[in-house]
Amino acid sequence: MFAGRVVAGSLRISCLRGNRCDALQGLSLPPEVGLGGRAMTLGRPVSVRDYSTASGITHEHDIAVGWEGLRALVAIPVAVRGEVAAVLYGGVRAVVQFGDQVVAQLVSAGYGLARELESSSERQRRIAQLRAAAAAPAPGLRCADLREVAEQLMAGMANTSDGALRDEVRHTCQRLLAALGGQSDAFPPPVVSARELDVLNLAAAGCSDAEIAEQLDVTVGAVQGAVRNLRRAFGVRSRYAAVAAARRAGVLS
């Protein structure tokens, strides 16, 4: 299997699985070029029994496909918000006709990829908004709305497996929450225990429940209990709102 994203109207192969070589890596296919370009244009799966002799597609990349030894191929367009955002391929090194069940399985995999791409696109959109707001908060900005977006985004990313993206989101959200910290009425400072203060500091650094538990040598349940106490104490709905409220109240530097 292999796949690629559609960028500026062209498909670029970037992900290979089960490959023999890297001949397909980085190939660019505009609309109508090759099997993927054809699927991209039609917006539906396209398959060939034998790529080398197929007459319904163009053959600009025959050498690369030949190096990989592929014969039968199917290309599945992956649509996000009505536009083809990627193409997923399945291929075998034999002359065969793909059955309906195989194509249906690949289409199902394509739906899963579409959901991932849509989620990624939404995260990137929110990150861009937060960057702009953190860089230069505008007069009349609705601080509460921005805080809520930042808190939701940080909470949603806390357990993601993409470490680089998680760190980028943490940094951007922390900048925004710090910038908004002085623009609303302070909460009365509640009584916070030493352990809860430790949890606050680690949450402010963007740590997940598991990371906080490891740092403090306690259970995840204990961390979650401390977070619940902090949310109640500050009258907020999330850990990051508690961090922001603690900063405003002078409990957290």
TrEMBL record:
Start and end residues of each HTH luxR-type domain:
185-250
Q: Which BP terms in the Gene Ontology apply to this protein? A: regulation of DNA-templated transcription
SMART domains in the cross-refs: HTH_LUXR
Q: Does the keyword Transcription apply?
A: yes
Query: What top-level branch of life does the organism fall under?
Result: Bacteria
* Example of a GO MF term: DNA binding
Checking PROSITE patterns in the record gives: HTH_LUXR_2
Q: Which UniProt keywords apply?
A: DNA-binding, Transcription, Transcription regulation
- A Pfam family assignment: GerE
Kindly give the InterPro entries that the UniProt entry links to this protein.
Answer: GAF-like_dom_sf (IPR029016), Sig_transdc_resp-reg_C-effctor (IPR016032), Tscrpt_reg_LuxR_C (IPR000792), WH-like_DNA-bd_sf (IPR036388)
Determine if Lyase is one of this entry's keywords: no
UniProt-listed PANTHER family:
DNA-BINDING TRANSCRIPTIONAL ACTIVATOR DEVR_DOSR
Question: What's the protein here called?
Answer: LuxR family transcriptional regulator
